[in-house]
Amino acid sequence: MNRALIVIDVQNEYIDGSLRVTYPPLGVSVPNILAAMQAATGAHVPIVIVQHVAPESSPIFATGSHGGALLASVAEHPRSLLVDKTEDSAFDGTVLGAWLAAEEVDTITIAGYMTQNCDEATARDAVQRGFGVELLSDATGTLDFANEAGSISAQALHESVLVVLQSGFAAVTTTAEWVDALQTGAALSPSDIFASTAGARTRQTPAAASQETR
């Protein structure tokens, strides 16, 4: 296993801007992001920092704005690569895929924001490109959403995405568990759809299934 830590969009927009992350609390996710970066440096795991960029007229992540800037503690940490992106996936329209291939990386570990947006998009894209994926559950996060389709709390949104990703797209783990894996060389693995739906199949008796198909 040859890992790289991908730190996605840890920008002021999510810290004190228009998209303040609320779950897990910033007091949890930010220290864990920094802890993961420190552990990666100690284990000689390359760190890629990803920064979302938008036009100067954009209400969020505007080029040159405070919100669009990286959190200072992240920006100041040693890194192997800085990637600017304009889309959700850190692979889309960037050099990330080619750089990972050149470095012979086969597994990426995702930290940063937001869980259901750029984190999930990058994880799914990575799987399609043949990479193993790990995601740090307490070094990622999101906020409440509401629109014409309904509403969902930050906690429910975060946790539901983690369950889906663990069902076959990514090994979802805590930062502490990931740091232990770095030290021992252990591989972390996702589950699969069949195992993830075992409870649903158990609850669905033959009689109930028969009623549902009528």
Automatic annotation (TrEMBL):
Keyword Hydrolase: yes
Organism: Subtercola frigoramans
Taxonomy, superkingdom: Bacteria
Protein name: Nicotinamidase-related amidase
UniProt keyword terms in alphabetical order: Hydrolase
One Pfam family from the record: Isochorismatase
Gene3D superfamilies cross-referenced by the UniProt entry: Isochorismatase-like
Isochorismatase-like domain location: 4-176
Chain coiled-coil ranges: none
